Amino acid sequence: MAIPVQSGRYKGSDSVLDYCCSPCEEIDKNSLHEADVYCKNCVKFFCGDCSKPHAQLYKSHNTFEREDISNWPVPKAKADLLQKCHVHKNKKLKHFCSGHNELCCSACVLQNHRQCKDVALISTLAKENKDGDIQPLLLNLTATLKHLNNLQNAGESNIKFIDILYEISLQEICNLRQIINAVLDKLEQNSKRELEEMRKKITANLTDDVETFTRLQDDLQRFCEAVQDTAKKGKEELRFIAGKKCLEKLQQYDAYLMQHSVTFESTITFHRFIEIEKYLSTLPGLGTIVQGSTEKPTMLIQQDQVISVKGKHEYNARLETDSHERSSITAVCCLPSGQVLLSDRDSQRLKLLDKSYNIVGHFDLSVSPGDICLVTPEQVVVTVHDGHTQMIQFISVTNRQMVKGTKIPLQQRCTGIAHHQGDLYVAAETALYQYTLTGKLVKKIYEDISVWKCAVSPNGDRIYVTKKGQGKILTLAKDGTVLSTFSSPELQEPCVYVANAGQVLLCDFYTHFIIQVDREGTRKLATHASQADGMKHPVSVCFNRNTDSVIVGQYKNTIVVFKVK
Fold it and tell me: Which Gene3D superfamilies match (predicted)?
């Protein structure tokens, strides 16, 4: 089947016409008119005005209007493009060297193919190869063109995504500076408080000493005056007593002064922790700027390749310190590092697993977490909600540490979330919204009273939305147009996940099924697990490309891991 190729035509002062009126071009090459009719007998093109006299003079000629453009010859501009030699621009390709498998112009033959015995005229070879079909090549060319267009779109999206990540990272730097400022402010207040307390303590002691010295000085002054009068006027007996008491007083005051003279030498000095300055001076910044990369979507020839599972293992998902006896793993997120992040709604915790699915860390939240999706290789967003608080929380995961980042407050409960190139898709019970990573509401994509979970295809052209209580999954275009609807008895309240290669997986809490549907969202491809396989209330599913396995979160204390064949 021939593939229609749209002819390019540019409007404006520099317009290039694929087909020009031949008579008009012969009269004035600078005044070209677009052809409307082609005469096969004359092998000429005619505009609307010129076609009328031609039709009157040559009524028997075989002519074709634009509606029959498939009967027109290849446009001259396109023929010239194909026939032009890429080495000698002013020469046309006339020869073919089968020994070198090269198209050649006359200049190429003289320069590079004089000794070649397999040089033939293209016109001769074309007559001998009448059955040659270029449609398969055109198919490949069209597919390559589409792939290049996808790469261009992906590159442009990535540029926008980098700008968004720049703003987020810039905000995180400012937030860290505020945290450091708050810590330094606290340390400053602590040091000031300690300084003030020491000043009060020393001042109080010194004040007591000063008051004591003043009192002693007054006593001694009165005693000294009494002794002076006695020395001048008193009798010998009184002078004797005065002398002894004077000696006694001097000894007492000398002893007291010896004990308290050091008080007047008290000082206050601030000795700073030079380690703080030394440590800060060694740091190149508030953190490191890392150029990360995420795995590009795998472009499978067969995009609906069925996942084939074999065997399963169960791994513990509960901690002894959990607030509930039973876990509810509402989301599973596989990190590029190989670690796995679980959302335990009932215990209000995020749980971090290593590559062997051992719990190596946890992060407590003040409200219940719901869904999780990956934003960058080391950052996720988590939906959290209770009766009063609805928001999207950013969490950074580095090694085994989880750190809370910025948050996006919401006006409605968020039941599902997905991310693609800086766009957050938020399922919120009655509608599907699009947000930026900075929290700006872009638009309402789709509205329905039963919006439950959402996921996005690897290239972002499809959004999958499940409907709560209706057992349906909708496939939407980016503008919210419903492309398809799929329902099945195996679905009542499905959750949806899209693997990096584009496979669409669904799990259902009530029916206990894990199924796969096609990329178009029109038919079931496979049932991977059911209650007969030990499934019990699956509420989340994820494909772990690091271990080639499917992970299922359940309403129980274990996760199930299926190995993929």
Answer: Classic Zinc Finger, TolB, C-terminal domain
276 and 314 belong to one structural domain: no
Residue 435, token pair as written in the block: 């947000």
φ/ψ of residue 559, rounded to 5: -105, 155
Biggest alpha carbon–alpha carbon distance for the chain: 170
Written as one string, the DSSP assignment of 183-239 is: HHHHHHHHHHHHHHHHHHHHHHHHHHHHHHHHHHHHHHHHHHHHHHHHHHH--HHHH
Q: Could you report the per-residue pLDDT of 353-377, keeping only the tens digit for each?
A: 999 999 999 999 989 999 999 998 8
Last residue of a domain, one of 86, 114, 131: 131
If asked whether residues 40 and 147 sit together in one domain, one would say no
Examine the domain organization and report whether 504 and 539 are in the same domain: yes
- Contact assessment for residue 28 and residue 11, using Cβ atoms and an 8 Å cutoff: no
CATH of the domain at 344: 2.120.10.30
Residue that is written with structure tokens 């062997």 in the block = 356
Q: What does the chain come to in residues?
A: 565
Give residue 295's pLDDT.
Answer: 54
For the cut 90, the answer to whether the pLDDT of residue 27 exceeds it is no
Q: What is the pLDDT of residue 191?
A: 93
Token digits of residue 196: 């003030």
Span 312-337, pLDDT tens digits = 899 999 999 988 888 999 999 999 88
